[in-house]
Amino acid sequence: MLGKPLRIGVVLALLAGACGDRTTPPTCVHSSVAEIAAAIRVGTYTSEACVQALLGRIARHRELGAFIAVDPRRVLSQARAADRSLAAGDRIGPLHGVPIAVKDNIDTQALPTSGGTDVLRELRPARDASILDPLWAAGAILLGKVNLHELAQGPTGQNATFGVMRNPHDPRYFAGGSGGGGAAAVAGRLAPASIESDAAGSIRRPASFTGIVGFRPDRMRYPHDGVLPLSATMSALGLMARSVGDVILLDQVITGAPIEETRGAGLSGLRIAVPSYTLRGLDSEIASVFADVRARLEARGVRIVELDLGDVGTLSDRMRAIFGYEVVREVPAYLRAHGAPVDLAGLVDALATPNVRSMFRRFLDDPVSEEAYEDALAARADLRARYEAAFVEHDLQLLVQPVTTLMPPRIDASVPDQTTPVMGPLTRNPLLNAAVDLPALAIPAGVSASGLPVGVELAAQRDRVDLLFAVGLSVERLLGAGSSTRTP
Length: 488
Description:
This protein has 488 residues and is of the alpha/beta class. It has 15 helices and 14 strands. The chain has helices at residues 8-18, 33-42, 47-60, 72-87, 133-137, 180-187, 204-210, 244-255, 284-299, 315-337, 344-350, 354-365, 370-393, 428-435, 465-479, and strands spanning 6-7, 67-70, 99-103, 141-146, 166-167, 170-174, 193-198, 213-216, 236-241, 271-275, 303-307, 398-402, 440-447, 453-459.
């Protein structure tokens, strides 16, 4: 460890001066993960220069609330070591020298894992989460830990301790939650990618709000140890990046698949279903963008069918029961294993974000019964069976839906259902695919009249991630002319 991890408010003014644009490659902050790796490999610029560029942007854009912890000395030392290794002719990996952000509920040795809460701000895990091991082995560098809605429980990106996560397209609006820090970092060009978690839209919702790509795989695609736990049967680790291609590259590294180019799939002849429930109560801006997406797909020969999955109106209540039952068992075990300074009750008392504290307080004061938990698990299994039957009955390849029913809320406005963040209009749509554990990809689809991004979500059966990626590439290209792929 080279020096103590530096909190954002302490050294950013120094960084802004030390890491100004005069010493940095102008293309690094505008490049994809794959482009950065290639540029470092051929000597267009060094890893050190790229890291300096990103540290400079982190320093100059504190208002986004993207990062919780950065250790500039450590990350620059790692970048210089990567450059020396390359110059020495050492064998290098596909992400050599590429800086990547990590959500601050995912364990890292180099920086504390706070979960976005003050009482855990110095919690230092003994080892990295397993999902990070192949990334570091491939040469990636930990840039810093990004902000999140406290304990990853909220749809907006509020955090009373580490700051609100603001949308780089318009800082008057939220970046989304819970992974608003990663979304603000990637969309704001403070990091090329972020490793994230998603139980009910925490990757896909902020990706949609900020015009980037978010990927939530099924739970078993990536190892899921080393994460401040919320729900053993709901939470999955995933990715944020600025392109589908970068998501595919990171996925190949994590899963150990051969690093090969994935080509887009032909769209003509595909049968894609829209779950009718996801179209109810849409904001007019989202409805307009989604109608345009549907028309573009149909013009390319895609057959769109509306899918009635029956009554899913109680899904949020059932998923809340699952979450409430599991979280009060898993978090205490994590706190004990890491030598945390508090138990679950103390953690809840210390929570600073009102909606999160009230939700956890209810879980403690009114525990979910075993019967209610088993009933919720049965309801989820029934929903999964309905999805599986629909794929077969309608000969479907994919599902498509709006990521959310609402546009990003203004930070100074009231947000519907803030006190019940696992439910509500910001969570309803992405909760569906998470509940049935389908791999899902959020892709920029368009821009509202006010210039804010709108996303669309594709989902596939659990054994068809290859198809999801291939179609995702084609849909990304199809929608590029009208989407918010240009980030600030």
